[in-house]
Write a structure and sequence with these properties.
alpha+beta, 4 strands, elongated, disordered C terminus
Amino acid sequence: ANGVANDKGTVLVFGAEWCTACKKLEHTDLNDPDIRKAGSAMTWSKIDIDKNPSIAAMFDVRAVPTIIFLNNKGEPLHTTSGLVSAQRLTGLLNDYADKATQAGTMRGRHEQLLELVAEATRIAEGEDVPADTVLRIVELIAVPDPIGADETRHRLVAMGPGAWRGLVEALGHRKLAVRAAAYDLLKETTGQVIPYDPFLDPKERAGQAKAWRDWLDSVRPERAAPKPAPQDNAGTLDGEEEGKTAPRAPR
Protein backbone atom coordinates (compact mmCIF):
# COMPACT_ATOMS: atom_id res chain seq x y z
CA ALA A 1 0.00 0.00 0.00
CA ASN A 2 2.84 2.41 0.84
CA GLY A 3 4.65 1.62 -2.39
CA VAL A 4 1.55 2.21 -4.50
CA ALA A 5 0.66 5.39 -2.63
CA ASN A 6 4.15 6.79 -3.17
CA ASP A 7 4.47 5.53 -6.75
CA LYS A 8 7.44 3.35 -5.81
CA GLY A 9 8.47 -0.24 -6.31
CA THR A 10 8.27 -2.55 -3.28
CA VAL A 11 10.58 -5.25 -1.97
CA LEU A 12 8.91 -8.07 -0.03
CA VAL A 13 11.32 -10.08 2.15
CA PHE A 14 9.80 -13.38 3.31
CA GLY A 15 11.48 -15.15 6.22
CA ALA A 16 10.92 -17.03 9.49
CA GLU A 17 12.28 -16.89 13.03
CA TRP A 18 13.78 -20.38 12.73
CA CYS A 19 15.56 -19.59 9.44
CA THR A 20 19.32 -19.05 9.93
CA ALA A 21 19.77 -17.85 6.36
CA CYS A 22 16.98 -15.29 6.87
CA LYS A 23 18.76 -13.86 9.91
CA LYS A 24 22.00 -13.57 7.95
CA LEU A 25 20.15 -11.80 5.15
CA GLU A 26 18.45 -9.39 7.55
CA HIS A 27 21.33 -8.56 9.89
CA THR A 28 24.27 -8.74 7.50
CA ASP A 29 23.41 -8.50 3.80
CA LEU A 30 20.56 -5.99 4.03
CA ASN A 31 22.78 -3.71 6.12
CA ASP A 32 25.44 -3.61 3.40
CA PRO A 33 25.95 0.07 2.39
CA ASP A 34 25.66 -0.69 -1.34
CA ILE A 35 22.42 -2.63 -0.82
CA ARG A 36 20.95 0.09 1.39
CA LYS A 37 21.79 2.72 -1.21
CA ALA A 38 20.39 0.64 -4.09
CA GLY A 39 17.20 -0.08 -2.16
CA SER A 40 16.60 3.43 -0.90
CA ALA A 41 14.28 4.22 -3.82
CA MET A 42 11.95 1.36 -2.93
CA THR A 43 9.48 0.54 -0.15
CA TRP A 44 10.38 -2.50 1.98
CA SER A 45 8.23 -4.99 3.85
CA LYS A 46 9.38 -7.90 6.00
CA ILE A 47 6.94 -10.82 6.20
CA ASP A 48 7.16 -13.77 8.61
CA ILE A 49 5.64 -16.76 6.81
CA ASP A 50 4.57 -18.42 10.07
CA LYS A 51 2.69 -15.33 11.24
CA ASN A 52 1.30 -14.53 7.77
CA PRO A 53 0.75 -17.89 6.01
CA SER A 54 -2.04 -16.55 3.81
CA ILE A 55 0.21 -13.84 2.36
CA ALA A 56 2.98 -16.39 1.76
CA ALA A 57 0.47 -18.65 0.02
CA MET A 58 -0.85 -15.86 -2.20
CA PHE A 59 2.67 -15.13 -3.41
CA ASP A 60 3.42 -18.88 -3.72
CA VAL A 61 6.40 -18.66 -1.34
CA ARG A 62 7.79 -22.16 -0.89
CA ALA A 63 11.17 -21.46 0.69
CA VAL A 64 12.82 -18.82 2.86
CA PRO A 65 14.37 -16.42 2.45
CA THR A 66 12.42 -15.28 -0.61
CA ILE A 67 12.57 -11.77 -2.03
CA ILE A 68 9.85 -10.49 -4.37
CA PHE A 69 10.06 -7.24 -6.30
CA LEU A 70 6.80 -5.43 -7.04
CA ASN A 71 6.18 -2.52 -9.39
CA ASN A 72 4.49 0.77 -8.43
CA LYS A 73 1.08 -0.89 -8.83
CA GLY A 74 1.90 -3.76 -6.48
CA GLU A 75 2.31 -6.29 -9.31
CA PRO A 76 5.12 -8.90 -9.06
CA LEU A 77 8.08 -8.33 -11.33
CA HIS A 78 10.66 -10.86 -10.09
CA THR A 79 11.16 -13.48 -7.38
CA THR A 80 14.40 -14.85 -5.99
CA SER A 81 14.71 -17.54 -3.29
CA GLY A 82 17.62 -18.55 -1.09
CA LEU A 83 20.67 -16.53 -0.16
CA VAL A 84 22.05 -14.29 -2.89
CA SER A 85 25.38 -12.48 -2.85
CA ALA A 86 25.47 -8.83 -1.89
CA GLN A 87 26.67 -8.02 -5.41
CA ARG A 88 23.76 -9.92 -6.97
CA LEU A 89 21.19 -8.33 -4.66
CA THR A 90 22.58 -4.85 -5.32
CA GLY A 91 22.26 -5.49 -9.03
CA LEU A 92 18.67 -6.68 -8.66
CA LEU A 93 17.74 -3.63 -6.58
CA ASN A 94 19.27 -1.25 -9.11
CA ASP A 95 17.54 -3.08 -11.93
CA TYR A 96 14.04 -3.28 -10.44
CA ALA A 97 14.07 0.20 -8.91
CA ASP A 98 14.37 1.41 -12.51
CA LYS A 99 11.52 -0.88 -13.57
CA ALA A 100 8.98 0.36 -11.05
CA THR A 101 6.68 1.51 -13.86
CA GLN A 102 7.06 -1.68 -15.89
CA ALA A 103 3.94 -3.84 -16.28
CA GLY A 104 3.91 -6.76 -13.86
CA THR A 105 2.98 -10.36 -14.54
CA MET A 106 -0.64 -9.70 -13.53
CA ARG A 107 -1.27 -7.55 -16.59
CA GLY A 108 -0.51 -10.55 -18.76
CA ARG A 109 -2.79 -12.58 -16.52
CA HIS A 110 -5.63 -10.16 -17.21
CA GLU A 111 -5.33 -10.65 -20.97
CA GLN A 112 -5.35 -14.42 -20.47
CA LEU A 113 -8.40 -14.11 -18.21
CA LEU A 114 -10.34 -12.24 -20.88
CA GLU A 115 -9.58 -14.94 -23.44
CA LEU A 116 -10.44 -17.83 -21.11
CA VAL A 117 -13.67 -16.25 -19.87
CA ALA A 118 -14.71 -15.55 -23.46
CA GLU A 119 -14.02 -19.18 -24.34
CA ALA A 120 -15.99 -20.42 -21.33
CA THR A 121 -19.01 -18.24 -22.06
CA ARG A 122 -19.26 -19.67 -25.59
CA ILE A 123 -20.07 -23.08 -24.12
CA ALA A 124 -23.75 -23.92 -24.56
CA GLU A 125 -25.93 -23.46 -21.47
CA GLY A 126 -26.08 -26.65 -19.45
CA GLU A 127 -22.82 -27.98 -20.86
CA ASP A 128 -19.72 -28.40 -18.70
CA VAL A 129 -16.94 -25.89 -19.31
CA PRO A 130 -13.74 -27.92 -19.88
CA ALA A 131 -12.09 -28.58 -16.53
CA ASP A 132 -8.72 -27.34 -17.77
CA THR A 133 -10.28 -24.00 -18.79
CA VAL A 134 -11.83 -23.51 -15.33
CA LEU A 135 -8.54 -24.55 -13.71
CA ARG A 136 -6.57 -21.94 -15.67
CA ILE A 137 -9.10 -19.25 -14.72
CA VAL A 138 -8.83 -20.11 -11.02
CA GLU A 139 -5.02 -20.13 -11.25
CA LEU A 140 -5.06 -16.64 -12.73
CA ILE A 141 -7.33 -15.11 -10.09
CA ALA A 142 -5.71 -16.91 -7.10
CA VAL A 143 -3.02 -14.24 -6.71
CA PRO A 144 -2.91 -11.07 -4.59
CA ASP A 145 -5.34 -8.43 -5.91
CA PRO A 146 -5.33 -9.61 -9.54
CA ILE A 147 -6.68 -7.30 -12.22
CA GLY A 148 -10.16 -8.41 -13.31
CA ALA A 149 -10.56 -10.97 -10.50
CA ASP A 150 -13.86 -9.70 -9.11
CA GLU A 151 -15.54 -9.62 -12.51
CA THR A 152 -14.17 -13.07 -13.33
CA ARG A 153 -15.44 -14.52 -10.04
CA HIS A 154 -18.92 -13.17 -10.79
CA ARG A 155 -18.84 -14.74 -14.24
CA LEU A 156 -17.69 -18.09 -12.88
CA VAL A 157 -20.53 -18.06 -10.38
CA ALA A 158 -22.96 -17.11 -13.18
CA MET A 159 -21.82 -20.15 -15.18
CA GLY A 160 -23.45 -22.27 -12.48
CA PRO A 161 -23.28 -26.05 -12.87
CA GLY A 162 -21.18 -25.74 -16.01
CA ALA A 163 -18.18 -24.60 -13.93
CA TRP A 164 -18.63 -27.03 -11.03
CA ARG A 165 -16.65 -29.90 -12.54
CA GLY A 166 -13.58 -27.75 -13.11
CA LEU A 167 -13.82 -26.18 -9.65
CA VAL A 168 -14.05 -29.59 -7.97
CA GLU A 169 -11.00 -30.79 -9.87
CA ALA A 170 -9.10 -27.62 -8.90
CA LEU A 171 -9.34 -28.77 -5.26
CA GLY A 172 -6.46 -31.11 -6.10
CA HIS A 173 -4.13 -28.34 -7.27
CA ARG A 174 -0.63 -28.27 -5.78
CA LYS A 175 -0.87 -24.56 -4.93
CA LEU A 176 -2.63 -23.63 -1.69
CA ALA A 177 -3.99 -20.34 -3.05
CA VAL A 178 -5.60 -22.12 -6.02
CA ARG A 179 -7.20 -24.78 -3.81
CA ALA A 180 -8.56 -22.13 -1.46
CA ALA A 181 -9.96 -20.03 -4.31
CA ALA A 182 -11.63 -23.07 -5.88
CA TYR A 183 -13.25 -24.03 -2.58
CA ASP A 184 -14.57 -20.51 -1.98
CA LEU A 185 -16.04 -20.44 -5.50
CA LEU A 186 -17.60 -23.87 -5.04
CA LYS A 187 -19.35 -22.82 -1.84
CA GLU A 188 -20.56 -19.62 -3.45
CA THR A 189 -21.85 -21.12 -6.68
CA THR A 190 -23.29 -24.41 -5.33
CA GLY A 191 -24.59 -23.33 -1.92
CA GLN A 192 -23.07 -26.51 -0.48
CA VAL A 193 -20.94 -26.63 2.67
CA ILE A 194 -19.17 -29.95 2.18
CA PRO A 195 -16.03 -29.77 4.37
CA TYR A 196 -12.71 -29.11 2.66
CA ASP A 197 -9.53 -27.74 4.21
CA PRO A 198 -6.90 -26.60 1.66
CA PHE A 199 -4.21 -26.66 4.38
CA LEU A 200 -4.45 -30.41 5.09
CA ASP A 201 -1.94 -32.94 3.77
CA PRO A 202 -2.61 -34.47 0.31
CA LYS A 203 -4.19 -37.71 1.57
CA GLU A 204 -6.69 -35.94 3.81
CA ARG A 205 -7.50 -33.40 1.10
CA ALA A 206 -8.03 -36.19 -1.40
CA GLY A 207 -10.75 -37.70 0.78
CA GLN A 208 -12.52 -34.36 1.14
CA ALA A 209 -12.23 -33.65 -2.59
CA LYS A 210 -13.77 -37.06 -3.28
CA ALA A 211 -16.78 -36.09 -1.17
CA TRP A 212 -17.26 -33.07 -3.43
CA ARG A 213 -16.80 -35.22 -6.52
CA ASP A 214 -19.33 -37.79 -5.27
CA TRP A 215 -21.85 -35.02 -4.60
CA LEU A 216 -21.31 -33.59 -8.07
CA ASP A 217 -21.77 -36.99 -9.69
CA SER A 218 -25.02 -37.42 -7.76
CA VAL A 219 -26.50 -34.14 -8.98
CA ARG A 220 -25.09 -34.35 -12.52
CA PRO A 221 -24.85 -38.10 -13.11
CA GLU A 222 -25.01 -37.76 -16.89
CA ARG A 223 -21.81 -35.71 -16.79
CA ALA A 224 -19.83 -37.77 -14.29
CA ALA A 225 -16.12 -37.57 -15.09
CA PRO A 226 -14.46 -41.03 -15.05
CA LYS A 227 -10.95 -39.55 -15.15
CA PRO A 228 -9.00 -37.23 -12.83
CA ALA A 229 -8.40 -33.55 -13.47
CA PRO A 230 -5.85 -32.33 -16.01
CA GLN A 231 -2.29 -31.52 -15.06
CA ASP A 232 -1.77 -27.84 -14.44
CA ASN A 233 0.87 -25.87 -16.31
CA ALA A 234 3.01 -25.01 -13.31
CA GLY A 235 3.23 -28.52 -11.85
CA THR A 236 1.23 -31.58 -11.02
CA LEU A 237 -1.98 -32.07 -9.13
CA ASP A 238 -2.08 -34.13 -5.95
CA GLY A 239 -1.52 -37.78 -6.72
CA GLU A 240 0.14 -37.22 -10.10
CA GLU A 241 3.75 -38.13 -10.70
CA GLU A 242 6.11 -35.46 -12.01
CA GLY A 243 6.80 -35.80 -15.72
CA LYS A 244 3.65 -37.75 -16.55
CA THR A 245 0.74 -36.27 -18.43
CA ALA A 246 -2.52 -36.59 -16.56
CA PRO A 247 -5.64 -37.58 -18.51
CA ARG A 248 -8.00 -34.71 -19.23
CA ALA A 249 -11.57 -34.62 -18.05
CA PRO A 250 -14.12 -34.79 -20.88
CA ARG A 251 -16.23 -31.81 -21.90
